[in-house]
Amino acid sequence: MQFSRFLRVSGTFSKVFKFWRGLCAVGLSLAVLSCAPAISTPPTVPPPPPPRPTTKPVPTPPKPSPRALASLRLTEQGRQLLERGQPDDAIRVLEQAINLNTTNGENYYYLAEAWLMKGNLGQAAEFNRLAEIYLEQDPQWSPRVRRQRERIKR
Length: 154
What we know:
Elements (H helix, E strand, L loop, with lengths): L1 H9 L1 H29 L25 H18 L3 H14 L4 H14 L2 H15 L6 H12 L1
Helix pairs in contact: 3-4, 3-5, 4-5, 5-6, 6-7
């Protein structure tokens, strides 16, 4: 008790109190000022990354089977035989091509041409009908098949 009376009497206590009060006020001010920008401005969020392109890789078409390749070679041989005016040989070769690949509409088209050359319109019409089934979605072949059908109908 005597010590605190001494400090009050001498004025030292009030000086020490004022010093600590000032120091606390400065510290508090610095603390508030250092936090003030973080409180007043929202935190910056980095922008999201740009969207990745959604292009899918182009799938590679399946390789034709050896039977399909052999059928294509026979189709070409049959076409050449028709160009040379040999419908009987072309029919034989194109029938072999159909045995290897029944879904190749070109074989049916050329068979219709061969039967048309021989004058057998019934056979030509039947093979033209099959060619139309297999080639109807092909923009290059469907007009040719229609023109062939018109020649058969005459």
